[in-house]
Amino acid sequence: MAEAASKDGGEALLEVRNLKMHFPVTSGIIFQRKIADIKAVDGVSFTIKKGETLGLVGESGCGKTTTGRCILQLYKPTSGDIIFDGQELTSLSGSAMRAMRRQMQVIFQDPYGSLNPRMTCGDIVGEPLTVHKLTANKGEHRDRVTELLQVVGLNPYMADRYPHEFSGGQRQRIGIARALAVNPSFIVCDEPVSALDVSIQAQVINLLEELQDQFGLTYLFIAHDLSVVRHISDRVAVMYLGHIVEVADRIELYDNPLHPYTKALLSAVPIPDPVVEAKRERIILTGDVPSPMNPPEGCVFHTRCPIMIEDCKLWMPELREVSTDHWVACIRVDGYGEPGF
Amino acid sequence: MARLLEVKDLTTHFFTQDGVVKAVDGISYHVDEGEVLGIVGESGCGKSVSALSIMRLVASPPGRTIRGEVIFDGEDILKLDDSEMRRIRGNRIAMVFQEPMTSLNPVLTIGRQLTETLELHQGMNKTQARDRAAELLRLVGISDSERRLKDYPHQFSGGMRQRVMIAMALSCNPRLIIADEPTTALDVTIQAQILELMQELAREFGTAMVIITHNLGVVARYASRVVVMYAGKIIETGSAQDIYHNSKHPYTLGLLGSVPRLDAVEREKLEAIEGLPPDLIDLPPGCSFAPRCRFAYERCSQETPVLERVGDGHESACWRSSELTELARAAG
Ligand SMILES: Nc1ncnc2c1ncn2[C@@H]1O[C@H](COP(=O)(O)OP(=O)(O)OP(=O)(O)O)[C@@H](O)[C@H]1O
Ligand SMILES: Nc1ncnc2c1ncn2[C@@H]1O[C@H](COP(=O)(O)OP(=O)(O)OP(=O)(O)O)[C@@H](O)[C@H]1O
Ligand SMILES: [Mg+2]
Ligand SMILES: [Mg+2]
């Protein structure tokens, strides 16, 4: 499983193995008693190669953000391995981790809430430079901030303004400039355009693509909008209720989706073209997404699955490689399901 | 088909400390019986305010509809008195809002909220209303509906609450449903469920629908005609086919170029529209889109273009609409 989807080609920058993040649910006022677990991430494995973008899609609450936060060591995972640039992160000491953290940055969904309203744009972008002591003096610091603002398409004279004086798209650019300040090699982009208007989304997506080319960045791109994810990613991982159910190349995933959830998700996304839409067939799922506190027994998708059989209630299938670099977790992929490995 | 709704020169402004917000600035469109009309545009362009103006639900002050007519079924509903308007609202025109939690009353059971309108508008007695309410819940795909009538809104998921809103909208067999971003807050697979359901029900009952959204895909799938808004005005209107395949407005073209398509084979660079939408208090002179427009020339920042016919049932407000196809081709 560890080598899940790492192609023979490029070198892996990040490897996630059987990652689990269970949040305890407690009750009681004086004595906190654990009464259940929220299985936010429940055994996720994938690899991202240097310079690659892996897209992570799935519906609200399926565990995308939690996965990203575990990788960044903002949560201590319940179990599993996270290997970044050859080093196992979960066992690193505090100082080694701080050095490592410079390599890994994050861009958040909410361009309104993620910036400190009392700091100027220049201070926000320059803060990581100070924290990591990356510039020798004031002049150098100022030059670097100017350079960073220019890289993301903001005018350096805006450095003295506060976040509320910027539009959503501009604020997202400030967040990106800040992430770039420490010359990271890897960025978790957690829904970086979801809160933005359509025309502004394109500006930010184009910027992220340009920066990747320019600085050889590696991205984990998290979003619920499949069209956006497919546009920006080299490979796409589809998540459902704490599990990755399919991973494939962006073209393969669209041309040949194999998991019934991926098929439903693809067909649920309307394409902005009335001619195409009139001809498309849709798979409409029934029912709601179950709660991760009380996930279904067996395959987590079986309660909504249009091709469910009795065996699906027995166990959660593992991801297996059904064709080169195309991984699926479904026993029914080749007709009537064997447990298959 | 017969005209059901005709909006003429509708103008709603907000009179604020900072100045006059021209949220809806002289828009005109129509909806025929049984038709689905899509209204698209970016955040803040006036989509919701235009819908609220039709329902006469704009907060006043600071908002006021200062001009225009809304002819529904032959009468101008802007001229009706409040009690007559209440008879229309929720009865002959129903509205579905974006956030179902804020439009459902949290302290009343789902059943009570449904039966209340049925008793009020349809003159049903308690038993009739309850039976009809259960039937409506079944219709929108909520199983075990008799029992669920006793539940409160917080006991339902977001998707189920939105289905309840649709059940409420349908409860009085309205002629027109105005759905303002009915699924934006929901997950994609649930979105598809709800929109498909609305379309099915509208077809079955011959209800006309106005779907307001910023999602160009949703409009392409469900609407037969489309209205595109920018900065309080309609800048293009036509059949879905015209808008998506033969647009005559640079803003519409820009919107279409800036969304990635799920079915794209090649990864083409998105054509972002540069700049930001204007401040509705301080609109630029001439065409509001001119400062962001690739094809703007001198006249655009001096004179405001009005909607003009560019084809059968197709109108665009652009000085260069007749040469636009060539201009866009030349620009690549
Ligand atoms: N700190 C926490 N404590 C307890 N439960 C949590 C915590 N963080 C997340 N969860 C739960 O874990 C599940 C996964 O949440 P997560 O935020 O990872 O989802 P997501 O896929 O990012 O969703 P969205 O698309 O809505 O952002 C959810 O059920 C959430 O309620
Ligand atoms: N109570 C108010 N006071 C002042 N301005 C208002 C008020 N309500 C709305 N506006 C302004 O009117 C304009 C139109 O708002 P509206 O809600 O119609 O936008 P919208 O197109 O529905 O946007 P969205 O896609 O974000 O829902 C906005 O610029 C908004 O700021
Ligand atoms: Mg998230
Ligand atoms: Mg709105």
What does this structure look like?
The complex is a heterodimer of chains A (341) and B (332). Chain A has 341 residues and is α/β, with parallel strands linked by helices. Chain A is 29% helix and 23% strand. Chain A has 10 helices and 12 strands. In chain A, the strands form 2 sheets. In chain A, strands 6-7-8-3-9-10-12-11 form an 8-stranded mixed β-sheet, sandwiched between helices. In chain A, helix 3 runs parallel beside helix 5 (168-180). The longest helix of chain A is centred in the middle third of the chain and has 18 residues, at 198-215. Chain A starts with 11 loop residues before the first strand and ends in a 13-residue tail after the last strand. The relative contact order of chain A is 0.14. Chain B has helices at residues 47-55, 82-88, 100-103, 110-122, 126-139, 145-148, 158-170, 188-205, 216-222, 240-245, 250-258, 324-331, and strands spanning 3-16, 19-32, 36-40, 63-72, 75-76, 93-96, 176-180, 208-213, 225-230, 233-239, 308-311, 314-316. At the A-B interface, helix 6, helix 7, helix 8, helix 9 and helix 10 of A face helix 8, helix 9, helix 10 and helix 11 of B. The complex binds adenosine-5'-triphosphate (2 copies) and magnesium ion (2 copies). One magnesium ion is lined by residues 64-65 of chain A.
Quick description:
The complex is a heterodimer of chains A (341) and B (332). Chain A is α/β, with parallel strands linked by helices.
The H/E string of chain A reads EEEHEEHEHHHEHEHEEHHHEE
What is the SS-derived class of chain A?
alpha/beta
Bound molecules: adenosine-5'-triphosphate, magnesium ion
End-to-end span of chain B in angstroms?
A: 40 Å
Q: Which secondary structure elements does this structure contain, and how are they paired or packed?
A:
The complex is a heterodimer of chains A (341) and B (332).
Chain A lengths: L11 E16 L5 E17 L3 E5 L6 H8 L7 E6 L2 E2 L5 H8 L2 E4 L13 H11 L6 H14 L16 H13 L5 E5 L7 H18 L2 E5 L3 H7 L2 E6 L2 E7 H6 L4 H9 L5 H6 L40 E4 L2 E3 L13
Parallel strand pairs in A: 3-8, 3-9, 6-7, 7-8
Antiparallel strand pairs in A: 1-2, 1-4, 4-5, 9-10, 10-12, 11-12
Chain B lengths: L2 E14 L2 E14 L3 E5 L6 H9 L7 E10 L2 E2 L5 H7 L4 E4 L3 H4 L6 H13 L3 H14 L5 H4 L9 H13 L5 E5 L7 H18 L2 E6 L2 H7 L2 E6 L2 E7 H6 L4 H9 L49 E4 L2 E3 L7 H8 L1
Parallel strand pairs in B: 3-8, 3-9, 6-7, 7-8
Antiparallel strand pairs in B: 1-2, 1-4, 4-5, 9-10, 10-12, 11-12
Bound molecules: adenosine-5'-triphosphate (2 copies) and magnesium ion (2 copies).
One magnesium ion binds next to helix 1 of chain A.
